[in-house]
Amino acid sequence: MSKVPQLIKDGQVQAVALSERVHWIGALDPTLRTFDIILKTANGTSYNAYAVRGSEGVAIIDTVKENFAGDFFARLETVARYDEIKVIVLNHLEPDHTGALPELMRRAPQAQLYISQKAQSMLKALLKQDEFEFTPVMTGDQVTLGDRSLEFFHTPYLHWPDTQCTYLPEERILFSGDVFGCHFCDLRLFNDEVGDFRFSFEYYYAHIMRPFKEHVNRALDLIEPLLPISQIAPAHGPLLRDQPQRYVHRYRELSRAVQQSETGEGPKTLLIFYISSYGNTRRMAEAIYEGAMTVNNVRVSLFDLEGGEIAPFVDLIEGADGLLFGTPTINGDAVKPVWDLLSSLAVVNLKTKLGGVFGSYGWSGEAVKMVEDRLRGLKLRVPIPGLRVKLIPTEEEIRNCREFGLELARELTGVRQSRVIDMADLA
Question: For the domain that residue 346 is a member of, what is the CATH number?
Answer without folding.
Answer: 3.40.50.360
